[in-house]
Structure formats: structure tokens, C-alpha cells
Amino acid sequence: MKAYFISDLNIDEWIPPRDGFTNLGPFRKLLNKWLCPADIVFVAGNIGSDINNIYSVFAVLMENYGKIIYVTGNYEYRLTPDEKMRCMDTYKKLDKTNHFIDNLTKNYKTGIQLAQQINGNYTKINALTISGSMGYSDFSYAITKENKNIDEYVENWPKTCDGKTWKLNWSTDAKEIAKYENDKLINSIIPEETDILVSHYGPWQGINISQKSVDYDYGYLTIDGKPIFDRLKDGAIWHFGHVHDKVKREVQTKNGNILLLNNAIGCPGEIKSGLVKEDFILDI
To answer: Between the N and C ends of the chain, which has fewer C-beta atoms within 10 Å?
Structure first.
């Protein structure tokens, strides 16, 4: 079975949000530049924030793949100005988004759901075990590699795009939110069994930070990969996004070799590595 791995379409940066689910033409034209033929596609979050745009992306993915596995990213958690005006919270938005996706991608003749979200759980496809969840920045890179104080990041979080556009109704503490999301990610892994892990946030270990093409703060963008590496078996794949630099490399862990994949599309005008989309087609 051929699989294609992709993340960070950031569709709202490419196609302005609009009312209604009409005219897939611009979405087909854009996504056809990014997609590769395969049986299944794995999407590691940050499709977009606008529900109509997200719906249109899934409509195009349905035309190209027999199965879609995805996790949400921090963009999907963000409320648009209109959603804020209507007093929507993040979880209501996610429920609405998933409802649209489920209705769009269900084959009503067979009852099979063609798109499946992984959110702190695992699923089976053929003989493969696929685990995952979004995860969230734990600021560990800034603390470990740059000797920064975590309190600085926690205090600044409400001023970030996520802090200003998320409405969780249970916490505004970035450290608490990160623990909750990362516990879901870690606990989704079945030791000695998980073949593919999909998350939005990925490990700072194994990423060549010295060659980053975008000037951003890795303290906000990555997580400590060690607890996850310790649970993944030899030969597993960890597919992630959020960092807009493409990654395809093996890292050695105590259990063996793990293949890291990040095929982020990112935003218009960003410089990318020498990797091309065909590098992210794998036989699984």
C-alpha cells in the first residue's frame, strides 16, 4: 500500500476564506501541486482555521485518496473573528468541523468512514497500528538548549496567536495545556506495536535546527521527543508538522531506528529544503 505524508497546508494563507462550500476549482489547482498519487494520505495538522476552507480541502483529498488519516493542529483550534462574535468555543468548533468532515467522507453505501481523525487513540489499517494526537509545545527546546526560563514562555503565551484565538474553557495555562495534549500523544502509542505515529508537534531532537529556513522560535514549535522515542519500536515512522522545514531522516533511539517525516507546505514565500513531495511517498 502506498502512503503519502503531508502537513501544514495552511490553506487560509493561500486561499482567502469565503462563505459557503462552493467552487473547488482553486483548491484542486493548488492541492494538485502538493499532492502525490497514493492509496492513503496522512495529514499532520494545520489544514486551516476556516471551516469552509477545511471542508473544501477534504473534498479534494477525497477525490485523490481512498483513505485519509489526520490529526488536528493548532490552527484548527483557533477561532475566527466571526466565531468569537458568535461566542463559540474551541471544542464546539472542533465538533462542528469534525461533523462536516464525517458527513463528507462517509461512504453511505458501505458505511465506511474514509477520513479518520486520530486524537489520543490508535486505529488499525490492514496489519498496521497507527497512533497519534496533536501534541503541543512544551518549551523544552528553549529550556534545554537555550537555558531560557519556562515562566517567560508561559507568561507570554496569552499574547501569542494561539493564546488570543483559543477558548478552551478549562485553562489558559500553556504548561497545563501542553501536558494535557502531550499526555494524549504519548498514551496513544502502543509499545512494540505502533507502526506509524502522527502528530502535529514534533521533536526538536533529530531536526537540523542550524538549517532552518524560517526565523522562528523553536521553543514554541517543538516538543521533547525522548518520552515518545522511548515508546516507539524499531522501524516505526513518526510523521509530524508545525515546523515549516521538510524533514526525512532516521534517528537512533534505545529501541532502534525511527524515521522522522515532515512534509510541511507552510505559507507562501517560505524557503524549503531540497526535499521534494515525491520523497514523502512510502510503501507501508
So the answer is: N
